[in-house]
Write a structure and sequence with these properties.
about 40% strand; alpha+beta
Length: about 130
């Protein structure tokens, strides 16, 4: 897998090139955990189906590739815009900065849970019950 960033007007677009899969894996298996800040309180849990971004133990965003039947897939970021703490607000800003070239959907907590259910993403954990 490799990615390319292109400029489209003033907006940068990030596209992901992947080998096409016959089917998506049923279960998201963790492949790696990447620290997104120096303390490790913000991390990206990279999986086989989606990447989960956690502030401490609470999922605050996830990243999925939108498959459109071609080799060209677009990355979609779903962010929970709920106020947990000031630290989490800083983490949400960091996610916006990291994924500024991607489509970011921001939802309140209820909408975040519903969108995650539609996408088949498990966002339960931490203070998300």
């Amino acid at each position: 897998m490799w990615s390319v960033q292109t400029n489209k007007g003033d907006k940068q677009m990030k596209t992901i090139y992947k080998e096409p899969r016959a089917t998506k894996p049923e279960v998201n298996e963790v492949e790696a955990v990447v620290k997104l800040n120096s303390t490790g309180s913000l991390k990206r849990v990279e999986g086989t189906r989606y990447d989960l971004i956690k502030s401490y133990a609470t999922p605050i965003a996830y990243v999925v590739d939108v498959e459109n039947g071609t080799f060209l897939n677009e990355t979609k970021v779903i962010l929970c815009n709920e106020f947990y703490s000031m630290t989490t607000r800083k983490h949400q800003a960091k996610v916006r900065e990291l994924y500024q070239g991607c489509a970011i959907g921001e939802f309140d907590l209820g909408g975040f849970f519903k969108r995650a259910e539609i996408d088949g993403v498990n966002v339960k954990g931490g203070v998300n019950y």
